[in-house]
Fold this protein.
Amino acid sequence: MEHSNQVRELVLSGEGVTLADVYAIGGEVLMGTARWEKEAEERIEDRRLLAESERHQREMERAEAETNSRIEELQRELEAKRAEMKLLDMEREARADRLDANRATRLNLRGADADTARGPA
Protein backbone atom coordinates (compact mmCIF):
# COMPACT_ATOMS: atom_id res chain seq x y z
CA MET A 1 0.00 0.00 0.00
CA GLU A 2 1.31 3.43 -0.88
CA HIS A 3 1.63 5.96 1.90
CA SER A 4 1.81 9.76 1.94
CA ASN A 5 4.13 11.66 4.22
CA GLN A 6 1.98 14.81 3.96
CA VAL A 7 0.15 16.06 7.02
CA ARG A 8 -3.61 15.57 6.65
CA GLU A 9 -6.61 16.34 8.74
CA LEU A 10 -8.75 13.39 9.76
CA VAL A 11 -12.40 14.42 9.43
CA LEU A 12 -15.07 12.32 11.13
CA SER A 13 -18.56 13.13 9.90
CA GLY A 14 -21.94 11.55 9.27
CA GLU A 15 -20.61 10.61 5.86
CA GLY A 16 -17.72 8.66 7.31
CA VAL A 17 -14.02 9.20 7.75
CA THR A 18 -12.15 11.38 5.24
CA LEU A 19 -8.74 12.89 4.96
CA ALA A 20 -8.62 16.59 4.08
CA ASP A 21 -5.70 18.75 3.09
CA VAL A 22 -4.51 20.88 5.95
CA TYR A 23 -5.00 24.63 5.85
CA ALA A 24 -1.63 26.34 6.01
CA ILE A 25 -1.35 30.09 6.33
CA GLY A 26 1.68 32.14 7.25
CA GLY A 27 3.65 29.03 8.18
CA GLU A 28 0.93 27.88 10.55
CA VAL A 29 -1.16 24.76 10.01
CA LEU A 30 -4.81 25.10 10.94
CA MET A 31 -7.12 22.18 11.58
CA GLY A 32 -10.53 21.65 13.09
CA THR A 33 -12.31 24.67 14.53
CA ALA A 34 -9.38 27.01 13.87
CA ARG A 35 -9.50 26.03 10.19
CA TRP A 36 -13.28 26.43 10.06
CA GLU A 37 -13.06 29.88 11.69
CA LYS A 38 -10.30 31.03 9.33
CA GLU A 39 -12.21 29.79 6.26
CA ALA A 40 -15.36 31.55 7.56
CA GLU A 41 -13.37 34.79 8.00
CA GLU A 42 -12.06 34.49 4.45
CA ARG A 43 -15.56 33.88 3.07
CA ILE A 44 -16.82 36.95 4.93
CA GLU A 45 -13.89 39.02 3.62
CA ASP A 46 -14.51 37.74 0.07
CA ARG A 47 -18.18 38.78 0.32
CA ARG A 48 -17.19 42.17 1.72
CA LEU A 49 -14.73 42.75 -1.12
CA LEU A 50 -17.31 41.64 -3.68
CA ALA A 51 -19.92 44.00 -2.21
CA GLU A 52 -17.38 46.85 -2.19
CA SER A 53 -16.43 46.11 -5.78
CA GLU A 54 -20.09 46.09 -6.82
CA ARG A 55 -20.65 49.38 -4.98
CA HIS A 56 -17.70 50.95 -6.80
CA GLN A 57 -19.05 49.61 -10.09
CA ARG A 58 -22.46 51.21 -9.43
CA GLU A 59 -20.77 54.50 -8.49
CA MET A 60 -18.74 54.37 -11.70
CA GLU A 61 -21.85 53.68 -13.78
CA ARG A 62 -23.69 56.53 -12.05
CA ALA A 63 -20.76 58.92 -12.62
CA GLU A 64 -20.55 57.86 -16.25
CA ALA A 65 -24.28 58.42 -16.77
CA GLU A 66 -24.03 61.85 -15.10
CA THR A 67 -21.05 62.80 -17.26
CA ASN A 68 -22.84 61.68 -20.43
CA SER A 69 -25.88 63.71 -19.37
CA ARG A 70 -23.73 66.80 -18.87
CA ILE A 71 -22.06 66.27 -22.24
CA GLU A 72 -25.46 66.03 -23.94
CA GLU A 73 -26.63 69.23 -22.19
CA LEU A 74 -23.47 71.08 -23.25
CA GLN A 75 -23.95 69.86 -26.82
CA ARG A 76 -27.54 71.16 -26.79
CA GLU A 77 -26.32 74.53 -25.47
CA LEU A 78 -23.63 74.66 -28.17
CA GLU A 79 -26.18 73.91 -30.90
CA ALA A 80 -28.46 76.65 -29.53
CA LYS A 81 -25.57 79.13 -29.60
CA ARG A 82 -24.69 78.10 -33.16
CA ALA A 83 -28.29 78.61 -34.24
CA GLU A 84 -28.35 82.01 -32.52
CA MET A 85 -25.09 82.98 -34.23
CA LYS A 86 -26.45 81.89 -37.60
CA LEU A 87 -29.57 83.99 -37.03
CA LEU A 88 -27.47 87.02 -36.07
CA ASP A 89 -25.33 86.56 -39.22
CA MET A 90 -28.46 86.38 -41.36
CA GLU A 91 -29.86 89.54 -39.73
CA ARG A 92 -26.53 91.34 -40.26
CA GLU A 93 -26.43 90.32 -43.92
CA ALA A 94 -30.07 91.34 -44.41
CA ARG A 95 -29.38 94.72 -42.78
CA ALA A 96 -26.31 95.26 -44.99
CA ASP A 97 -28.39 94.36 -48.07
CA ARG A 98 -31.11 96.81 -46.99
CA LEU A 99 -28.57 99.58 -46.42
CA ASP A 100 -27.02 98.96 -49.85
CA ALA A 101 -30.46 98.98 -51.47
CA ASN A 102 -31.45 102.18 -49.63
CA ARG A 103 -28.19 103.86 -50.62
CA ALA A 104 -28.66 102.86 -54.26
CA THR A 105 -32.26 104.11 -54.18
CA ARG A 106 -31.21 107.46 -52.67
CA LEU A 107 -28.49 107.90 -55.23
CA ASN A 108 -30.85 107.00 -58.03
CA LEU A 109 -33.44 109.48 -56.73
CA ARG A 110 -30.80 112.20 -56.63
CA GLY A 111 -29.79 111.43 -60.19
CA ALA A 112 -26.22 110.41 -59.35
CA ASP A 113 -24.34 108.51 -61.98
CA ALA A 114 -22.55 105.19 -61.35
CA ASP A 115 -19.15 106.86 -60.71
CA THR A 116 -20.59 109.12 -57.99
CA ALA A 117 -22.42 106.21 -56.41
CA ARG A 118 -19.12 104.47 -55.73
CA GLY A 119 -17.77 107.36 -53.74
CA PRO A 120 -14.62 109.50 -54.11
CA ALA A 121 -11.59 107.90 -55.72
